[in-house]
Amino acid sequence: MRKRRGFTLIELLVVIAIIALLMAILMPTLARVKKQARATACQMNLHHWAIIWSMYTGDHDGSFPNGTRTEAGKQVGHWLFAAEPYYKDEEIRWCPMARKLWGQAQNPFVAWEATNVGGGDGFYTSYGINNWLYTPAGQKLWGYEAENHWKTVNVKGTDNIPLFLDCFYLGGHPLATNTPPEYNGQTENAGSMCMRRFCIDRHNGPTNMVFLNFAVRRVGLKELWTLKWHRRFNTTGSWTKAGGAVAEDWPQWMRRFKDY
User: Fold this and answer.
1) pTM for the predicted model, two decimal places
2) Low-confidence ranges of the chain (pLDDT < 70)
3) Is residue 86 part of a domain?
4) In terms of Cα–Cα distance, which of 164, 165, 158, 151 is closest to 65?
C-alpha cells in the first residue's frame, strides 16, 4: 500500500501566497461592489421619497408646505413633519453611506438630527429638500424672496428642477453664485453658500436626486449648477461650461469630475 505524502512547507507557502494574491485582487472589487450596492440602496430610498412627495402634493393641490408653520412646538410646515403621515419606515431617511450623526463621523458621511426644528432626539435625516419649493407665508422665507419659490409641482420644466437629494443638512436655498466646497463635506459658510450642503461626494462622483417630475437619477456634482433650483436661477452661470468655467476653476478635489 502506497504511503500518503503530506504537504511540504514550500507547497504550503505557495498555497498561502496564491490565496493572498487572490484576496489582494478581489478586495478592491468587493469594496467597489459594496459601494455600488449602497448607492443603489440610496436611489431606492429616493424612489420612496418620490412617491411620498407625489402623494403629498396630490393631497395639497400640487403645493408644498410653507416651511415654518408651528403647532404644539413642532414646525409642521417643515418637510420633516409634513411628510410624516406618508411613510412608516424611518430607514428611508438614511442614505446608507451616511448613517452617523454629526460629531460621530466626518462630513460628508453624516446625518442631521432635527432638534432645531422641534423634532426631538433621534429625528434624523441624511437627505435634504430644495428649499425653493416651499410656499412661504410672507414675502420671504429665511431671507429668500418668496417670488423665486416654485411652491407647486404645476410648473414647466419639472425634469430639471431639484426636489429632494443627498444633503448634510435639512435643505437649502442654492444660488448660481454659490462657490463650490473647498473640500468634500465642507460645512464652513454652508449657511450663505447653500450649494455646499448638496455638493457632497458620497457615491464616488455623482449624487442621487429626485426631480420635481418625481423621477430619480444620478447627477454629477458640477451638474448641480446647471439645474433650475428656483424660478430665476441662472443655469448658465459662471460655474458652468456655458458660463466659461473650466476644470482648473474648480477646487482640486472636484477637478476629476465631469464638466457641465
Assistant:
1) 0.85
2) 1-7, 9, 11-15, 17, 20, 22-39, 104-106, 116-122
3) yes
4) 151
Name residue 214's amino acid. Answer: F
Please report whether residue 260 resides in a domain: no
User: In this structure, is residue 65 part of a structural domain?
Assistant: yes
Alpha carbon 204 to its chain centroid, in Å, reads: 12
117-143: per-residue pLDDT in tens?
665 566 789 999 999 999 999 999 999
125, β-bridge pairs: 112
**Cα–Cα distance for residue pair 117/124, rounded to 1 Å:** 11
**What are the φ and ψ backbone dihedral angles of 211, each rounded to 5 degrees?**
-100, 170
Distances from the Cα of 156 to the Cαs of 192, 212, 242, in angstroms?
A: 28, 10, 22
Cα angle, residue 101 at apex, residues 54 and 86 outer, rounded to 5°: 20
Q: Is residue 157 part of a domain?
A: yes
Domains in the chain, number:
1
78: its cell numbers: 417643515
Range(s) of the domain holding residue 68? 9-254
Cα–Cα distances (Å) from 258 to 109, 207, 241, 247, 248, in that order, read 22, 13, 11, 9, 12
| Closest residue by Cα to residue 187 from 175, 198, 197 | 197
